[in-house]
Sequence to fold (265 residues):
Amino acid sequence: MIYFACIVVLVAMAATLSRCIYARTTYDRILAGNVFGTETVILVALLAHLHAEYYLLDVAMVYALINFVSTIAYMRFFKHKSLG
Amino acid sequence: MEILMSKMFDVGLLTLLMVAALAAVLTRNLLTSTIILSVYSLLMASMYLVLGAPDVAMTEAAVGAGISTFLLLAVLLLTGIEEKPSPHPILPLFVIGITAAGLIYATLGMPAFGDANSPASQHVSPYFITESMNDIGIPNVVTSILASYRGFDTLGEVFVVFTAGISVLMLLGGKKEKQPK
Fold:
């Protein structure tokens, strides 16, 4: 059952990746990248449940933080044209 | 059924990795390349998790999706977003072709994936698998090797992650602009 959920998330990842490649505007692309990070968090949580290794949930939290920070980097890149 | 689904999952993940790598190379817009590279890094980190190496996955995500994105964006600020077509398209193709042929030739000499009789599985791996729980007391073998047997290597890795943390601080708590626009 959890394997099935993993494969569903994988299909969603494929759809998001195609959106990231063929997006019309750059903002769609950044949004797709952000959604991809969220799907990775879900995938890691599912893998943690699958292998009954619940310390992987900490890894999922780190991914969520990194995802947030990289999105802020893109936003700053566009708004301020600098990263400092 | 579960084995089939697990195989499907692995093949799907690797296919996505290949698609992301090709897309990052083929696109002309460097910002798109940067975003797809961070997606690639998240996929690679998931692959490390599937292979049972959570520490490596965490480092891959912090360095690949975190600090590499930051550094590539800083480079894009200096160079501009659009990639210019190369004046000599044959030479890079030649170099890459030779490198790829060499790498593929090198894989012919490698033992089969998961081969129990390969040199890497014969030398110290049995000791780590049987004794690491007694020596260190960490259930995950990869974690006990990274955190204890090869602690100095991990210290160097910590420096890398520390640098990533500094860049995060620069992003979130940067200096205020003197003249508000």
